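The pair is quoted verbatim underneath.

:::
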Amino acid sequence: MWRIASILVIVCTLVACDKNRIFDQYQSTKNGWHQDTLVQFSWKQESAEPVNLYIQLRNNEKYAFNNLFVIAKLKFPNQKVLVDTLEYTMANPDGKFIDQGFSSIVTNQLYYKEKLTLEKGDYTITLEQANRKNGSVKPLEVLEGVTDVGFRVEKVDLKK
């Protein structure tokens, strides 16, 4: 019982000390991330300042790949859209996941943009999985093992 209480205290402390967070949200993918499922997040940038943007992913042991491919479309207040095809390393060559979790779920925080200065206004990001099997042109219909997809915006700590 004391272990659970200790873990809860640590988690609450970390969340309370998250002063750089501007936006942090997840969407459940239930039975994997389907190729036609576009995960979208919107937030209002209250001030012009540099930020770090992260794509966040929770996966379980059913995730069968060493990497992740994502197409990200960031829409700015002036309607300009920035499109990136991204690749992230998720596991070592031996298949062991790089990030760790408290249970069978692994949480990954993946840099998308670092020290990007955003103006005030409304932003939207759309994320789409683009994994393929080796030698295949078609994307996987369902990327199994992905339980949640998230997005985080945080202020850059200029003191570092």
About this structure: The first strand starts at residue 21 and ends at 28. Helices lie at 2-16. Strands lie at 21-28, 33-34, 39-45, 49-59, 67-75, 81-89, 106-118, 121-129, 142-143, 146-155. Confidence is low (pLDDT under 50) at residues 5-16.
